[in-house]
Design brief:
This protein has helices spanning 2-18, 81-92; strands at residues 21-25, 32-39, 42-47, 49-58, 61-70, 104-112, 119-128, 131-142, 145-153, 175-186. The protein has one domain (21-186): Beta Barrel (Lipocalin), CATH 2.40.128.110. The chain starts with a helix and ends with a strand. By secondary structure, the chain is an alpha+beta fold. Helices cover 15% and strands 48% of the residues. It is built from two helices and ten strands; from the N terminus they run H-E-E-E-E-E-H-E-E-E-E-E. It is elongated. A ten-stranded antiparallel β-sheet has the order 1-4-5-6-7-8-9-10-2-3, with no helix packed on it. Strand 6 and strand 7 form a beta hairpin.
C-alpha cells in the first residue's frame, strides 16, 4: 500500500512539474538592443534601451511575454559629432519613429515552439508607431541570457522615408525597407 501511495505521489509531482511555469524579468540595465539599417551606400547602427520586459516559460516554451522599448533613447554609434546628431534627430522625426508621439515600441509574445538544443522559434506582435504586425524569430537560450535577431519591414509601420516601394529615382539615397534588431535579454 505504501508503494502505491509513493508511486501516486511521484506521478502527481511529475505531472505538476510539466505544467510548472516560471516568470522571468528582463534586467533593463544589462539587456541590449542594437539596430542596424542599410542603404545603397552603406549602413548605420546604434542602440535603443529596453525599458522593461517579462516573459513566462512553461513546458520548455516561451508561453507569453511583453517587452517595452524606449524609442526616445535611440543612438547612432557609427558616426560622430554633427553627423551623428543629425541622424539621431532624423530618426526621432516623423520621417522615421516619431518619438515625440510614440515614445515606446512593444513586442508581445503570442506563441513558441519548445527549446531544442537551446533554440526556439517564437511568434509575436511588434508595435511601432501605433501599428502592430506579426513577427517570427529564433531565440537562443544561454543560461540567463536570451538572444535573437529580428528583421523588421519598416514600411509596415508607416516608415517610408527613402523607400524604393514608395519613391522613384532615389539612386544612392534609397534606404533598405528592412532593418534588424539584435536583442540580448538578460534576466534577473
Amino acid at each position: 500500500m505504501k508503494t502505491i501511495k509513493n508511486t501516486l505521489l511521484a506521478a502527481i509531482i511529475l505531472a505538476g512539474t510539466s505544467a510548472f511555469a516560471q516568470e522571468y524579468t528582463a534586467d533593463a540595465n544589462e539587456s541590449t538592443l542594437k539596430w542596424t539599417g542599410k542603404k545603397v551606400s552603406g549602413k548605420h547602427w546604434g542602440m535603443i534601451d529596453v525599458k522593461e520586459g517579462k516573459f513566462t516559460v512553461k513546458d520548455n516554451k516561451i508561453a507569453s511575454g511583453e517587452f517595452v522599448i524606449d524609442m526616445t533613447t535611440i543612438t547612432v554609434d557609427d558616426l560622430d559629432g554633427e553627423w551623428r546628431d543629425k541622424l539621431v534627430g532624423h530618426l526621432n522625426s516623423d520621417d522615421f519613429f516619431s518619438t515625440d508621439k510614440y515614445k515606446t515600441a512593444t513586442i508581445k509574445i503570442t506563441e513558441s515552439e519548445k527549446f531544442e538544443n537551446g533554440v526556439a522559434t517564437v511568434k509575436g506582435n511588434l508595435t511601432i508607431k501605433g501599428k502592430t504586425h506579426p513577427v517570427t524569430f529564433d531565440v537562443k537560450k544561454d543560461g540567463n541570457s536570451y538572444s535573437t535577431t529580428v528583421t523588421v519591414d519598416r514600411t509596415l509601420y508607416d516608415i517610408r522615408y527613402g523607400s524604393g516601394k514608395f519613391f522613384e529615382n532615389l539612386g544612392d539615397n534609397m534606404i533598405d525597407d528592412n532593418f534588424t534588431l539584435e536583442v540580448n535579454i538578460k534576466t534577473i
